Structures are given as structure tokens and as C-alpha cells.
Amino acid sequence: MAPRIVPITAPDDPRIAAYRAVRERDLAGRESGFIAEGEVVLRVALGPDARCRPSSLLVAENRLARLQPLIADLDPAIPVFAASQAVMDAIVGFPIHRGILGFGLRPTDAGAAALLAAAPARALVMVLIGIANHDNMGGLFRNAAAFGVTAVLLDPTCCDPLYRKAIRVSVGAVLKVPFARLEEGEDVIERLAAGGFTPLALSPAGAVSVAQVARPQRAAILLGAEGPGLPPQLLARAQTVAIPMAPGWDSLNVAAASAIILHALA
After folding, report:
1. Fewer C-beta within 10 Å: the chain N or C terminus?
2. Do residues 122 and 250 share a domain?
């Protein structure tokens, strides 16, 4: 097989409509689609264990030679649109220095119950509550991939993991780690219990230190937004875990905190 290179010479070419005005579409939303940006991210997206794959690529012509190893075995059904740097910048609406974008369709959300049911006997799940910052979301998924998290559950108030910036910060991990969004009103503690998962809730006032936690066969790490943290009603129904810190300091960035507890359990 050889990649199917499709030259693009005009920004208004209808074949690249999905890539037009990227930042405006970031804000407005892409409904069923997502944009992946950069060589590192696309390497994950085109890898054998990716859950979200691009259906097309848009590449600056001067990057084609460098990207040849990445796209050499690409299915010809996935077109590689190639444009000059000036045309590509005009398409996306800003100087796109990385010179490579991919567009794909979002996978169907199977739901939390199905995701937990598919987990192996020994599994580590991350549950995110109220994570509204895309940098944090990307960092959390990057850590999830690094420490072998089986799946990520998000409550309805979390931001979109498939937002372009979140994908980029995660270095493509969002496209690899399975995730599902909890339904409005779905009781996450009950859902975890039904799947045989022990909930461990991270909190500065946790009852035990992260170093004292015995790893359950099926563990679920609950993480809340910086500032408000996890709701009291969730903390009251889970084993609470603290990361000891220097006197006078009680909090970390949520992505940093996730790395510490995931490493301890993994």
C-alpha cells in the first residue's frame, strides 16, 4: 500500500472543509468529529491500539518527506491532503507550525457500565469530577496512559477530552485510553460497586496517606477539580487518600496529584 496524496491548492477546496477555521470550530464544537495536531499525536492516532483514528490528514507539503515513515503504510482510503504552508495556514486560520493535522470521527460512547464490565479482573480506573480545564484534562489522560489505567470515567460537568488542546497536551493519550461520560444523575459510587471497583478518593483531608493504601484488585481513583475538590457526598462514601506535603501547603495541580497516586498503585 502507498499513501494517497491529494494536492490542495485553494483554501476553499470543499474536500478540506473539516479543517477550515480550526480555532473558531474549537469554540463552536465539531459535534461528531475531532482534530488531532502534530506528529507525536498522529503517531499515536495511527498506531495499532488507537481507539480514535483519523479519516484524513492535512499536511504541509514541505513536511511530506519527513512524515514519510509515518504515512508510508497508511490505508489509501485515508487521504493525505497536501498544501503549501501558505494555503494550509489560510485553511486553518492561523500559522500552523507543526504542519500536520488529522480529522476523525468520535467513537460511540458505550457508557460507564459497559466500560467497567469490559475491564480485566485486575484493573485501575480513573474517575474525573468537574475537570473543566483542557490542559488538566490532557495531563490526566497522559498520566492514565503512562500508568496503565484501564479506563477513564467523566462526570457530565467535565470538559471535552477530544478538544484539540486536550489531545495535544495528552500527547495523543486521549485517542488511546478508553473513556466514557457518566449520565446526568448517574451514581458513580453505585456504578463502581456494581463493577466490583473500590473507590479511592483523593483529598487533602484523606484518612490515609497514599503510601499506606493497599492496592485493590479493581481500584477506582476519584479526582476533583482544583479548588472545590470532590463533593462531600462522594468523599463520605469512599476511602479517602491524602498526599502528605510540607507544612502550610495542602494541594497540587490535579494532573500532578494523579501521577503520584497512579504511580503508587500501578
Report:
1. N
2. yes
DSSP 93: T
Span 89-119, pLDDT tens digits: 999 999 988 899 999 999 889 999 999 999 9
Task: Tell me, yes or no, whether 123 and 63 share the same domain.
Answer: no
Band (221; pLDDT cuts 50, 70, 90)? very high
Which of 250, 240, 164, 248 lies closest to 209 in space, CA to CA?
A: 240
Domain identity same for 165 and 249: yes
For residue 96, the enclosing domain spans 4-105
Mean pLDDT for 23-50 is 88
CA dihedral 236, 133, 210, 200 (to 10 degrees): 40
E-only strand ranges, the chain? 4-8, 33-37, 54-60, 79-83, 100-105, 123-129, 151-154, 179-181, 198-202, 208-209, 218-224, 239-242
CATH number at residue 100: 3.30.1330.30
Whether 184 and 260 map to the same domain: the answer is yes
Residues 91, 120, single domain; the answer is: no
Q: What is the CA radius of gyration of the chain?
A: 20
Q: What is the CATH number of the domain that holds 164?
A: 3.40.1280.10
Do residues 126 and 258 touch, judged by C-beta distance below 8 A? yes
Tell me the pLDDT of the chain averaged across its residues.
94
Q: Residue 94: name the closest of 85, 83, 103 by CA.
A: 85
C-alpha triplet 101, 151, 130: angle, nearest 5°? 80
Label residue 29 by pLDDT band (50, 70, 90): confident
**What's the distance, Cα to Cα, between the start and end of the chain in Å?**
39
Q: How far apart are CA 74 and CA 118, in angstroms?
A: 30
28: pLDDT strictly greater than 70: no
